[in-house]
Amino acid sequence: MTTCGVCSQTVDLANGPHIHDPKICRACGRSLPATAFAPHKSSGDGRRHQCRECVAADRRAPLNPEERAESRAREGAAIKADRNQRLRDSGYRWVIQSPDGRILSIEQAEEELDAIDLEDSRSYWDEVPPGADL
Asked: Which residue range forms the structural domain that includes residue 75?
């Protein structure tokens, strides 16, 4: 049993794929028929998350690792922005919490960050052991 990321339904993939038609491409954001997405056995709906056109463009792209990383970062940022907008639309809100536990407005946080002397803050971060959970 798993939860569908589109409709939030609990589905049993043993009964076959849970298909939404049309489907949204995670790379280009277009709404396309499910047949525009190649089969993918491990996906909940049995289809890839990127449309065939985007997969082909990605394969034709130069194999320059820096360009590929930038492309992936842009795709990830678009997905994150979409998810954050859906959360906002559902009533979720984010807060800024200071290291001492106070809840701050954006303006208060900016003022505190502006007041920090970078040389003093570097000495604090230098004391944190490598690999420590912050």
From this structure: 62-94
